[in-house]
Amino acid sequence: MSRTVRWGVLATGGIASTFTADLQAMPDTEVIAVASRTDTSAKAFAERFGIPKAYGSWAELAADDEVDVVYVATPHSAHRAATALCLEAGKHVLCEKAFTLNSREAEELVALARDRGLFLMEAMWTYCNPVVRRLIALIADGAIGDIRTVQADFGIAGPFGPDHRLRDRALGGGALLDLGVYPVSFAHLLLGEPDRVQADALLSPEGVDLNTGMLLGWESGATALLSCSVTADTPQTASVTGTGGRIDFPRGFFYPERFVLHREGHDPEEFTAGSAGDGLRGMQFEQAEVLRALRAGETESPLVPLDGSLAVMRTLDAVRDRIGVRYPADDIG
Fold first, then answer.
1. Looking at 43, 53, 91, 97, which residue is catalytic?
2. From CA 314, how far away is CA 102, in angstroms rounded?
3. Rounded to whole angstroms, how far apart are CA atoms 5 and 287?
4. pLDDT at position 278, please?
5. Is the pLDDT of residue 68 over 90?
6. What pLDDT is stored for residue 113 in this prediction?
7. HEC string of the chain?
8. Which one of 40, 76, 96, 187 is most buried, counting C-beta atoms within 10 A?
9. What is the pLDDT of residue 158?
10. Is the pLDDT of residue 321 over 60?
């Protein structure tokens, strides 16, 4: 891998814009190409960010020999197709979350990347955030004892009409894959894959979840109470309670700048470990991890391991099974 890592961006929506703006502030990187389903969208995005190449098809980006790694920023309904296209063309890939629509699609992508010896990572930026890494280190050092409960929520008010993608079953609509993936991934980071999954939800007339509550359980006795919604602006906070204390994250727990440690007999302690700063949104941390791994010749990130992404997808599948949400893609294969 050359000193300058050359990126291609696949898709031109809001998350692609945020990611590209952060990426262009990173040293030793260059965004050299963008692709969309239309020339018009690709060219507009390229002009906005000063990107030299604009492609009106994903295949053209995948075939560009100058691109080292592709950031897949499509809705999750297209993650499997877009990521597979790039992997088959020999490109390393950072794919947005939720990783795919279901665990079968995720398993196919992981198998393909491992077979080709290519780097693949889910863009779970929370896992790469330095504040979250500090949390993991504190817990490993026994700061709060054994974890007993995890609570996390992510809800937005909407409303979203019947024609919005969040209400479209074919596009993997609903709160769970767009927002619920964050609380679920947070619980997985702390406790691993749960042994038991319970869930309940309010479904839309189209059959996607609008408001979902989850209770996960582990043989250790730990539990996680999680929720997501596209009908209510929830606190978007998280807390982890152990036998020796509690850690609270304020609103925006999935890209935090601080948390507070509470222990009996001690004053509350606030921890920070850097922030987005300089107008960045915090995506530079996952970008830095991709660059580090590529330069080290690694095909998986220890911070966002593929086996962990597969486990999260299995839990999301289990939740959908409990609440009765099924996508057309579930019936393929």
1. 97
2. 7
3. 11
4. 59
5. yes
6. 98
7. CCCCEEEEEECCCHHHHHHHHHHCCCCCEEEEEEECCCHHHHHHHHHHHCCCEEECCHHHHHCCCCCCEEEECCCHHHHHHHHHHHHHCCCEEEECCCCCCCHHHHHHHHHHHHHHCCCEEECCHHHHCHHHHHHHHHHHCCCCCCEEEEEEEEECCCCCCCCCHHHCHHHCCCHHHHHHHHHHHHHHHHHCCCCEEEEEEEECCCCCEEEEEEEEECCCCCEEEEEEECCCCCCCCEEEEECCEEEEECCCCCCCCCEEEECCCCCCEEECCCCCCCCCCCCHHHHHHHHHHHHHCCCCCCCCCHHHHHHHHHHHHHHHHHHCCCCHHHHCC
8. 187
9. 86
10. yes
Structure tokens, 103: 């665990």
Q: What is the pLDDT of residues 192-205, one digit of tens each?
A: 999 999 999 999 99
So what's the pLDDT on residue 1?
Answer: 64
The owner of tokens 């998986």 is 300
The b/e string for 216-239 (b: 16+ C-beta within 10 A; e otherwise) is bebeeebbbbbbbbbbeebebbbb
The tokens of 107 are what? Answer: 């398993």
Active site residue 43: no
pTM over 0.90? The answer is yes
Scan for tokens 């260059």, then name that residue.
30
